[in-house]
Amino acid sequence: MKSKVQQFVRKNIQALAPYSSARDEYSGKEGIFLDANENPFGVYNRYPDPYQPALKEKLAQIKNTSADQIFIGNGSDEAIDLAFRIFCEPGQDKALTFVPTYGMYEVSANINDVELIKLPLNEEFQIDRNLLQPFFSDKNLKLIFICSPNNPTGNLFRTDDIEFILKNFNGIVLIDEAYIDFCDQPSFIQKINEYPNLIVIQTLSKAWGLAGIRLGIGYMNQEILSYFNRVKAPYNISTVNQQTALDILSREDYQQKVKDILDEKEQLIQNLSDVKGILTIYPSDANFLLVEVENADELYEKLIARKIIIRNRNSVIKNCVRISVGTSGENQQLLNALKEFNND
Ligand SMILES: *Cc1c(COP(=O)(O)O)cnc(C)c1O
What we know:
The chain has about 350 residues and is α/β, with parallel strands linked by helices. It contains twelve helices and eleven strands. Helix 4 packs across helix 5 and helix 10 (about 255-275) runs parallel beside helix 12. The protein starts with 10 loop residues before the first helix and ends with a helix. Pyridoxal-5'-phosphate binds near residues 76, 102, 147, 178 and 216.
């Protein structure tokens, strides 16, 4: 009898004999290591630990979960790509997401030759269950991506809609919580044991301010994790990145950074709402604002000329731009520029 998860795993992945690294075959820390063709001289001469146990312990402690339910990737984009490679047969299986959303699901789908079904969000940028439900019977649909809070719309999806999908979809549900630390909604990490088909991904790139070290995290049950570990590159997180992340997670507290950003966000919302030509500031559960303006293309170019770079989302939501919350000085310069444009 196959487990629930196993039925969704590609046959070649179920049968895969993973690469057995030197550090898989002997994982002790002490000894004379003549097994990995490493250079005996130097500082970074040794391969990193393939499973990053110290960093996982730290993350488990911070997130109140268990280290043996954690995957660490070279950015969360690695986890997204692995999900396609583990669960979707190229040229045959499908994935689904709700648009507009984060562009990597589509890029990763295309790379893996997997069709991505894109269902439009409703007027409130929420999931439309009626549009979704017919797809539950598609046997080739293996994976649903839910980005909550969603990029670029900035809002959380309703918890009961997400739970509806977790309960009714016979496949893997990946919830991308890159922005979860900016809102007061609890993470779905706590539901990993309740839903065997759930993967939650988070990242150190946003609330922790560590986009430069490329560290994404997947929270999942041990069965799904075993497939991630089989398919990932053996030494996917460098020693430098593991150490840097562990250092910063041990020393710093992201709560203060988040609080500062949220204070700035409130200020920015207030100030922007006084600016002529700002038509809508959508509610945001993240560290950015989706803003409707009169002419997004024109505004984008005018700001670029001032070396102020925002994200033009006109191609996905008409006349909308996405503005990341910056420092108070940066936000002020943006506001000054917008006001000057109005006086021109
Ligand atoms: C920024 C972002 C990420 C982060 O990706 P990393 O590869 O971890 O830097 C993931 N998902 C969404 C929706 C994002 O906006």
